[in-house]
Amino acid sequence: MKVLGIASDFHDSSAALVVDGRLVASSAEERFTRNKHDSSFPKFASEFCLREAGLKAGDLDLVVFYEKPFSKWIRVLESSLVHWPTSRSEFVESQGEWLGRKLWTRAILAQKLGISANRVREVEHHRSHLVQAIVGAPYARSAVLTVDAVGERSTASMARAWWEGEVLQLEELGKTEFPHSLGLFYSAITAFLGFKPMNDECSVMALAAFGVPKYKEAFRKILQLEANGFWSIDPSFLQFDRFLSAPWTDRFLQLFGRPRDAGNALGFSSLRETQAGREDQHWADLAASAQFVLEEALLHSARHLRLVSGERNLCFAGGVALNCVANSRLVKEAGFAQLHVPVEPGDGGASIGAAFAGYFESARSPRKAFAHPVYLGAKGNGVEALAREIDVEHSWEYQRLGARCDRRKWNVQRVSDPEARADLLAEALAAGRVAGLFQGRSELGPRALGHRSLLFRPDSVELAERVSGEIKDRAPFRPYAISLLSEDATEILDLSGFEGAALPLRLMQLAVPVRSEWRSRLRAGLHVDGSTRPQLVSEADDSFFHAVLCRFKKRRGLGALVNTSMNESGYPLVGSSEEALMLFSRTSLDLLVVDDLLIGKE
Amino acid sequence: LGEQAVHLAETENPIRSISARPPVRLRRKILERVAGFINQLDRGLVRLVLLLRWKRESGAAEERIRAFEATEDDSAWQLLHACTRIADPSVKARLFLQAMEEAHHAEVFRGLYEESSGKKLRKLQVVRKPIFQPEAPWKLFAYCAVGEAAAASRFRHIAEALPPGRFREALQKILAEEEGHIGLAEALVSLSGRTAGEVNAEIARIRLVRAWESWLRFGRGLSGLVSRGLLNASYFLMGWWLRPKEEK
């Protein structure tokens, strides 16, 4: 049975293809369109999934959309009428979109794919997240928690899941509904702090490390924990039905003052011991307080779920599961033995959940599906001929671009032996060069896990500053992450309390303290609190990246590298090898590895 | 092929040299007059918009810069998308380098926006519709020639109407580079081995498509206005109708 899952029309559109219970391909649309968090219909991602399986749209048995548009529309309509007569602009904005397009998703999907509308189904948003959380987890039974901004009405749900033979069983244990949303709460604070909501939540998490949660009592009034394991939001402070304009009320503004002006850069740096941005302390304290209550609410839910489900393993999905600091607290304090977070827990991965939900509901004899691979995105093209063709010295475009691009001459070599290739890459990295690694199929999710990564030495703050300034145009308060040999993890990281986190530690889903004796040697990849977001690399996970780390260790005595996503500011992770080459040519990146090709700058 | 195209673009006016034969003189004259009239009309409209909107409404100029950024970024994407699907390495390289320039133009507009507004630019999401057709790659070059010419003409008109300053300088610089792209795109079309008739027909088709798309955009804008009006009316009606009885 062939099922295509589709997530679109909100943010992070994606497609996923399940064939006979196996996830064959999945990708976010942004990887093909270079529109970060692209919300349009995932045309390119769907085409890629079908191509990967050698199928045509007509071969699909089922197309499953990740939420129920009609139910969502009713909620949006109600929300925009609640504040009548002052919510006119919200009503006109939202209903224009809904009546013009979103409400007819089923017909539009059928038309775009060229199939009958009978083959298109819709599943509830949180069911997509629930299934998404389970299918990648290697557990026979588990408790499941999903927390995000909002689906149709649900904003969080709890369930118990188990496999009965080959059939997935799900028992819902509770849910909470709009407007009581932890995701929207955090997004509102994101907007208040001058960042883009549904996009820059990671910036709030990063900023929180510079502050103290001095406003936690105030935030506890806004976000109150409830006996049912969830929470409620006091509407006299935040009104999410007015999210398009400003969700905060006068009462909120009396407590915290005016929102931050996005035009003023924050003075903090994750790479400096002493901070220059003391005038921004208020914002950092706000971020720290919001982060604190978010963690508190998640812990409250997880502990409740542990009690009511009686399960020992927790699967956690939804956009809030991207918060690695909160995930760490769940691992250590929620009382579960194991935690699993899908590689793309947000809406970008909900297409996977939708596809599996459709599969389990419709397949006559479904096959148990779990522990699918991380690298299921698109491959690159061979770019050797292209790289050899580009004449940096004489091409007229390079002449015209002049100093605005890196004009060092390229040196292109094919190195078929992976050992030799790993050796050359490690040598360059050890010598202080910044390298891009583009290999095989792309990783799912927003984090670069060694297939679309920029790498550099972890002991050099100067290199980190160079990458932030010249390549990524990245706010200095946002820390980098580290990839390290899994065999060295316990020596370098303080993993006490993280025993049940083998899976998230492989996927950069936790913030973990680094042992003090290693901090200076890993400074470029640490946050100000001495923590990092590690990716533990084993040979079984990625033999080439593991080999690079081993060879780097031989040279520098430490098998760790700073690993950040291969993209420029404002763009998603590179989707094609040509795009990687463009990043290489436009920036001061020293070396690019595209599969077995090494392109260096003199 | 890419190298030949560069040579051709530098030495002559390739598309005009193939599309100019055998011209019916009168028809050409009429077409030139029409093109000249449209050009003058566009120049006048640009001046009017600058006078009425950019100078009076705060943020209008920034919004236009943001739209330019999105257009240039889309051009870069179109070229890069074609580059991933073309086999000839020299043509691939030309597309790649042009994509790089377009990406740079987008960057220039980003810088202008941020300088002028004091805010980081939040990119507009453009729905990607690939122009490249694998079975007829030359049509992309024809499209580029027409599209770049239209963009260059628009940039020229804005630059002429703007007072001296950073925006004007940036537009003039980008304009010069876009003109280089037109020459190269024309050279690639002429080297594709198509007959003058085919090229002319394709160029006419592209112009028609562009005109049709403009018309559709206008129509969408108009129907958007109407539907907004209807939505505004239904908002007040529904709200009043749904209000509790005692409030009525």
What does this structure look like?
- The complex is a heterodimer of chains A (602) and B (248).
- Helix content of chain A is 36%, strand content 18%.
- Chain A is an alpha/beta fold.
- Chain A has an 8-stranded mixed beta sheet with strand order 13-22-21-14-15-20-16-19, with helices on both faces. In chain A, strands 3-2-1-4-5 form a 5-stranded mixed beta sheet, with helices on both faces.
- In chain A, 57% of the residues are buried.
- By secondary structure, chain B is mainly alpha-helical.
- In chain B, 79% of the residues lie in helices and 0% in strands.
- Chain B is built from 8 helices and no strands.
- In chain B, α4 (60-83) runs antiparallel to α5, α6 (138-161) runs antiparallel to α7 and α6 packs across α8 (196-242).
- Mean pLDDT of chain B is 82; it is low at 17-23.
- Classes of the chains: A alpha/beta (602), B mainly alpha (248).
- The A-B interface holds A 32-36, 38-40, 44, 80-81, 84-85, 88, 91-92, 95-96, 99-100, 196, 262-263, 381, 385-386, 388-390, 395-398, 400-401, 404-405, 570, 576, 578-579, 581-582, 585-586 and B 2, 6, 73, 77, 80, 83-84, 89-90, 92-93, 96-101, 103-104, 110, 117-123, 125-128, 177, 180, 224, 227-228, 231-232, 235-236, 238-240, 242-243.
